[in-house]
Amino acid sequence: MNAAQRDRVLDNARYLREVRPVDPAEIHEYVPGQPHPAAVARVLREAAVDLGLVERDDGTFVPVEDGPVSVPFAGVERLPEAYGRVLEDLLVDRFGPGWPAGESGDRLRARIREIKALYHRGGSVSYDDLTALAYALYHLPDYYAAAQYVLADLIEDGLLDRRLRVLDVGAGVGGPALGLHDLLPADALVDYRAVEPAAAADLLDALLAETGRNFHASIHRETAESFDPGAEYDLIVFANVLSELADPAAVVDRYLDALAADGLVVALAPADRNTAVGLRDVERAVAGDDGATVYAPTVRLWPGESPAGECWSFDVRPDLAVPGFQRRLDEAGDGDGEFVNADVQYAFSILRTDSRRRIEYVPDPDRTAKMAETERHVTERIDLAAIKLSHDLGDGDNAVYLVGDGSERVDHFAVLTRPSALNEPLRTADYGDLLAFENVLVLWNDDDGAYNLVVDGETVVERVPA
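RE: above sequence
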């Protein structure tokens, strides 16, 4: 189809979209030379994002609905088999049908060990094609799930629209991209752009081929530092990439300029100490009076305050069903579960530039102690408000939870010594919930260099509507 025919297709589509569904079989009759309807449909697909059109199952195109997405979400049980088949097909193409065994299996298992060791040491991973395949074998399922859990909360908050411009910086092998795709309804219109310079882009490209007709994906094989966003985005994702960058705070700060006025930055990191704490360091570097606002989970409750504790904070979700490709790789080795990764544990930060927070709550300074001043209250009982920032960390008789109010200079742990109906919300509250503590005992924990907030039979804990 030549340029003049293409222009005529688009002119007709702009007119018809205001009148009735845009039908390629109808438009082709109005175009000189009457190009085949399939060629007309291809032009409409290529221009769908600019035209604001979604393609229906019957092959016609209609304007995307306005307003936020609303979808049911009951958690993630497994990585869809279709994505597993794509990964295994690539493994078979590279190593043959016996890829989990022999030399190829040994190489893949050795590379997974190297990746894990580098992450734990805070090192940088160099992604050749073998590393990309090993990374996908071990991490594609849990990163797919982690992204869905975080994004589902944003959907519940009404923050993701049916027309969505997404930039995925350091997209890797595609776990978050596939998670987003599967979470959204088929009639959402998504302009998805991935920034991925490494060999992982080839695997990402193969997996994105499984996405639907209204998920318009492109891959930019550039580094995060060199890529020019060139547009505004509703959602910018940094998934498991910040620890790989030389100056992650500077990179995030630059991309904040590419956010739409009500847009969101979602940063994800593995739950291990180095990467999770590193994520908080980046968050604190870009947040402040002249920078981003932390929307969740580490909301700053006190105006003008910012935290300084270590804050090794991460969420935990139910285990996934073990995909067949992980089980086969593991069983071809020692079969001890080393290469099975069903855990869903992740640190995350959600940033905005419009000052909006998930929890819009300011404590009453006359009735509530500020964690920045906890030193004044050691051995005393106080009232305070705090966000629950961990699941149970205790390994003994007492449940232990990291909590914070955004002003803490060192970490604070709520230690449940005497459970009761009056303090039950400490145990049952979700990660990221706001809690009010009444009559909690403050002690200094010299071993951990932190404050213990002792929740006993005299303490009342309530979940605070935010």
